[in-house]
Amino acid sequence: MDKSWIKKPHTSDEYEQGIKEFINFAFRDELKNGEIICPCKRCGYTLWVHHEESIGETSTISPISISNIVQDTVVVDDQMQNMINDAFGVEDHANEVPIESNTEKEKNASQQRYEEAKEYYELSREGEKPLYEGCVKYSRLSFLVKLYHIKCLCGMTNKAMTMVLELLKDAFEFANIPNSFYEAKKTITKLGLNYEKIPVCPNNCMLYWGNKEDEERETCKICNTSKWKSKAKVGAVGVSGDGNNRKKVPAKVLHYFPLKPWLQRLFLSSKSAEDMRWHANDSKNDGMLRHPRDSEAWKHFDLTHTWFASDPRNVRLALASDGFNPFGMMSTNYSIWPVILIPYNTPPWVCMKHTSFIMSMIIPGKKMPGNDIDVYLQPLVKELKELWTTGVDTYDSFKKEMFTLHATLMWTISDFPGMGTLSGWNTYTGLACPSCNIDSTPRRLNHSKKWCFMGHRRFLDQRHRFRLNKVRFDGQQDMRGPPKMLSGLQILEQVQNIDVTFGRKPDKERSGKRIRGGRPTQGVNQQWKKKSIFFELPY
């Protein structure tokens, strides 16, 4: 019996036909405990000794069959197939049922679904195509992806990558290698690695984005710094061309990954589309906090925005960001800030996996954005406002229908300094506690030059004996109540009139050392550094 289908990709017609033939063959005999042994390559049952096949039947293969196997070589790379599935949000694309085209909207959805399926199968065939005849280790796609990985790690230019591909093509004419990096990138971009490159002012003043006037500017409208790198720096990165023919390179670039396509892909697989309803279908009101959907904030949001809560498929996001040095423990000072979104519709064992995280943008270094992070968050906030008001048409593979997907940003996740960066609250003064706001009791430790936060007895019961104890504390009684938790409207009143011009002074205008610490600011206007860009969201 022909068993070559075992090594075929699971999405191929040959594999499906082979499974049917094996089932017919296996069910001729009496089953043991109503089960049969799985014949897939992962389980390793390729010699069917439990189905009356002897070792001698498969030990001898004719030369003709060997040549046929070499000619029909198909590279099976599970990791590459998983990457393709992740890019399209697919687990088993063959099992998806096409939607019926009754209305105009459904016809458009059907056409969109057809185009996505066509692109998926084309990329799957690229993953099966061997690099050259007889090659079983690399497919054409896996070779290009690994070569592209080397390019990114080593900082190779596009021209250098094209020269390498031309050399490989010239040396190995029989290999399926593209002629240029441009051709290779057309295949690689189908894996979902698309992003927008947005030029930024080197001093974090503005993005050259949003309207035609800003996009065409050559200098910053705030600090008048050039948009482009100087000639000396351009030459250092190896850009070709001399004089006026030299290609201009932006001095600083924000890499932004559009959010809408990522959210749409969450519903392309019936399994992940079903998981996106988990927070509503598996809700429990037993007082236990297992998931953010059990929190008071989640429930209050549902009561306030009932139209949003009426469809459990609407996505609730959290934003996390922090800086790190990509050069590890080296002496180079560099801080790069990735911004990651986490969809909380799914169960805890799914939403906290790194595969569920959505990369939103990469804020470049070499210095941290600080208070100017709002400049970089503009594209994301604009897209979040569109997702709240108009939404985006999305196909639900679980219910086999089109619907309008909406999304909301509910939380930010960061450490304490990162919280100050995102919110605008100054975390380096004596009033650093955001919960106490200006109703705090700081004390400066002059020798260590640090702040100490006193007044913890105010959180105790009014009749607690520690409130009257002077000896063991600071020599005073404390009968105050705890500070009041401010509402969102009260916070908005505090930041309403704060006017901030983003950006830092150019290097030539900065002098002297940065002053740390200082005396506690007693006015709320001095404590807030900005009105956060998140206040632009309509919820």
Can you give a write-up of this model?
The protein is of the alpha+beta class and 539 residues long. Among the domains are: 1-72, no CATH class; 74-194, no CATH class; 253-422, no CATH class. Helices cover 34% and strands 10% of the residues. It contains 21 helices and 10 strands. A 6-stranded mixed β-sheet has the order 1-2-5-4-3-8. Helix 4 (78-88) packs antiparallel against helix 5 (104-128). The longest helix has 25 residues, at 104-128. The radius of gyration is 30 Å and the shape is globular. 19% of the residues are buried. Mean pLDDT is 80; it is low at 54-74, 91-99 and 517-521.
Could you give a quick summary of the protein structure above?
With 539 residues, the protein is of the alpha+beta class.
Strand arrangement within the widest β-sheet reads 1-2-5-4-3-8
Tally of helical runs: 21
| Percent helix | 25-40%
The tally of beta strands, per DSSP, is 10
The helix/strand class is alpha+beta
Name the shape in a single word. Answer: globular
Report the biggest beta sheet as strand number plus sense, adding barrel if it closes. 6 strands, mixed
- Low-pLDDT runs of 5+ residues are 54-74, 91-99, 517-521
Averaged pLDDT: 80
Cα distance spanning the termini: 64 Å
Content of β-strand? 5-15%
- Roughly how many Å is the radius of gyration? 30 Å
